[in-house]
Amino acid sequence: MTRLTAEFWVHAYLARLRLHEIPGFVVSHGDDTAGAVLVKLNMLDGNATAFQRSFDLLSGARKWIELATGPEAEVDEAIARQRSFDPDLWVIEVEDRQGRHLLNEEGLT
Predict the structure, then answer these.
(1) pLDDT (tens digit, 9 = 90+) per residue, 74-101?
(2) Helix, strand, coil percentages in the chain from 3-state DSSP, rounded to 5
(3) Which of 9, 47, 98, 102 sits in a 20 to 30 Å window from 20, CA-based?
(4) DSSP of 14-37, one letter per residue?
(5) What is the CATH number of the domain that holds 47?
(6) What residues make up the domain containing 14?
(7) How do residues 47-62 score in pLDDT, each as one tens digit?
(8) Can you give the pTM of this predicted structure?
(9) Which of 47, 45, 48 shows the shortest CA–CA distance to 66?
């Protein structure tokens, strides 16, 4: 199975967000080929959630899990810690008061 590059996945994700009229922005540009991706959902009320992709070694399944949730400043600190030891990390910020991030949709896992 061919793997998508990180850059391709990011552009496809941003396009899908636009189709749903959900603002999304690249906050940190990681490695184009193999960078990991974090998605920060900003609820625009002072709270946020950061999601990271997880891989289950037993089943081979990939899914998005919460890295951090709570006040936006605390979530930003968690993301900064991740970036401090992974310079290839992409960070995408999604802004939606309804909490939509689309990560649970088919094709985004």
Answers:
(1) 999 999 999 999 999 999 999 999 999 9
(2) 25, 35, 40
(3) 47
(4) HHHHHHTT--EEEEE---TTT--E
(5) 3.40.1530.20
(6) 6-95
(7) 999 999 988 777 777 8
(8) 0.91
(9) 48
